[in-house]
Structures are given as structure tokens and as C-alpha cells.
Amino acid sequence: MPYLSILLTFVLFGFGALEVADLYAGESVVVYSGRAERLIKPVLDHFEKTTGTTVQLLTAGSTELVNRLRAEGARTPADVFITNEAGALELARGLHLLQPITIPAVATTIPPPFRAPDNSWIGLSGRIWLIVYNTNLVDPSTIHSLLDLATPPWKGKLAIPSANSEYLQDGASIILAAKGKKTAEAFLQGIRDNAGNEVYGKNRQIVDAVAKGKVAVGIVNHYYIFRHLADDPKAPIAPLITDQAEEGMGAIMNVAGIGLTAHTKHVSAANQLIEFLMSPTGQEMFAHINKEYPVNSSVKADPELPPSSSFRTSTIPLTRLAELREPIIQEIQRLGLR
User: Fold this and answer.
1) Hey, how many other C-beta atoms are within 10 angstroms of the C-beta on 21?
2) Residue-wise pLDDT tens digits, 182-205
3) pLDDT digits (tens, 9 = 90+) for 22-75
4) At what angle do helices 86-94 and 166-179 cross, to 10 degrees?
5) For 127-252+326-335, CATH number?
6) How far apart are the first and last CA of the chain?
């Protein structure tokens, strides 16, 4: 059964806790969010407080929400769709579940690499998929690429995200586009073999395993490292940005983002929320609460983060993530990653 069909079945039969009637109570903007509530709610709460517009929030997996939108069609109560990565937004765009955002500031605030060609979705905050290493166990000068972690020296020393992680799928998709099928297959097989049972559903669990010395290295989004260090400044962990050589693919950067649903009933309130999230105030909250990179170039990242000017990122367009996801998922399944 195709991947989307499996998820659609799951959505239709197992995902009805929040009734449509409940979402329409009162004048408000309805947000379907693939971001965890703890990461997005503080920003939405600030929007409510400063504008008086009520936000009604439904959280679930980004791809699950794409399929909910698809199943609901014109009946959907959702006004905006927030995701934790660009692939789901592009998938929604390809299924005609989004419409162009007509806010004039989008063109001058959000760089083209971080938005859809028709502006039906825009990035809100950036994250780098990189290596977290134990400073007591690893000499970082011995690692030059994410691909190195798929080689024999790292067997039994690596922790990775689980097979259903959108971050793993997107990261492997960028490798597929940048380096080709054979390299992507070798990477997935190598990290599968090297990680063994060290497979985790949450990035923060990977960081914790590295900090405790259970493994020497892991692959995570950068902000989980800095959140851990904020709670435990003496933890023996550090980030390592790789693939910076001239022939390297560059660091893998993705974005959390937002799209305007095709069937929104509250265009004005939805646009008001989008404007807030891309404004300096909204962007600063992403930067300092979540330790992410602002997409609005007028806003500075948290000073604890490596400056974005200090590393080179992949040039693979984020709009390609939707088309690349299916072949990568098939390969993940074929190789038996957990």
C-alpha cells in the first residue's frame, strides 16, 4: 500500500479527537501544527495576548496533518498549517491544499530558498541536521562528513533517529539529491549497522545518550544540543557542522514553516498570524526560546549558535523534499531501519 494511503487510512480512522464543531467555536484562527505544542504554543500565546485574536491549536505529525487536510477537503476548519520541516508543506502544496500568501512583506522578508515559488508556504525558522559528539570520546577533526558516520569505525558508537523521523527522511533525501542513489543507500545501510539498537524516537534522547557517554556521536537537529546545554552547561557535548569542503554537499538545513490553507474561512486572521510569525517579534521568539535560526534576515540568531555566515549549506531546493521522500521511505523500508 502506498505510503500516503497508509497515512490517510490512519487519519480517517484513528485521528478524530478534536471535532470540527469544537474548532469553530468563536471567531478565531485555527492552526494545524506538526510542531510539538511546547515549541509553538509560547509564540501563539504571545500572538493571542498582543492581538486579541484567539488561536485554536491541533497538533499531530506533519504528514498526518497533510492527510487530514486532504480528507477534510473544503470542510476543513484549518486556516493555517504549521510544520516542523519543509517537505510536508511542499507535499500539501502539490496536493492543492494550500493557497498563495498575498502579504506583500513576504517578498522582502523571507528569502526565496525558504518559501514556495507561489508563496503558498514560507519558512519561519531554520535548523541544521548535524552531529552531536561527546567531547570526552571524540576528536572532531576526524569527522569531515555525515557520510563518515556510516563507515566501520563508528560501529557501536552511533545513535540515530527512528525510521519514521521526518528529519531522517529529509536528511537522507538531501543526500540522495546531492550525492546520488548509491551514496544515499550506503549511508542508510551504514548508519543502520553502526547504530544497532541505539535508535531513538526523539532528538533529545539522542543528545542525552551522547551526553551520558552511552554512544560517542549522534545525528540531530542543532537546537536540541543547545537546549540541553542551557539546562546542563557542563554536559560533555558539542555540535559539529560537516561537509564544508569544496566538494562537500554543505550542511543540511531545513525549515519549520507555515502555509495558508486552500479552504480557510478566516483569511484576515490567518494573514495576521503569518505576519506576526515572520515579524521581528515572532522571529526573535523562535531564535531565543527554541534556539533556531530566524529566516527573517533582519533578526539575529541566539549568540550561542554558530553564526550562519560561518558555514555553507546545501543548495538542494527544499521544494524537492516532497518528490524525494517516497523513494527514500521505500529505501528505508527495504533496508529494515527501525
Assistant:
1) 8
2) 999 999 999 999 999 999 999 999
3) 443 347 999 999 999 998 999 999 999 999 999 999 999 999 999 999 999 999
4) 80
5) 3.40.190.10
6) 19
Nearest to 161 by CA among 200, 129, 197: 200
Distance CA(301)–CA(286), nearest Å, equals: 9
Distance of alpha carbon 149 from alpha carbon 158, whole angstroms:
7
8 A C-beta contact, residue 278 and residue 122: yes
- Separation between Cα atoms, residue 301 and residue 38, nearest integer Å: 20
pTM for the structure as a whole: 0.89
Q: Which residue has the cell 540531530?
A: 220
CB 115 within 8 A of CB 123: yes
Residues 6+ apart with CB under 8 A from 277: 43, 47, 124, 258, 283
Domain topology for 3-126+254-306: D-Maltodextrin-Binding Protein; domain 2 (3.40.190)
Q: Contact 92/81 with Cβ under 8 angstroms?
A: yes
Q: Where in the chain is the domain with CATH 3.40.190.10?
A: 3-126+254-306, 127-252+326-335
In 3D space, the residue among 197, 123, 114 whose CA is nearest the CA of residue 155 turns out to be 197
Q: What is the pLDDT of residue 242?
A: 98
C-alpha cell at 154: 563508528
Residue 115 CB partners (closer than 8 Å, separation 6+): 106, 121, 122, 123, 257
**How, if at all, do strands 121-134 and 252-261 pair?**
antiparallel
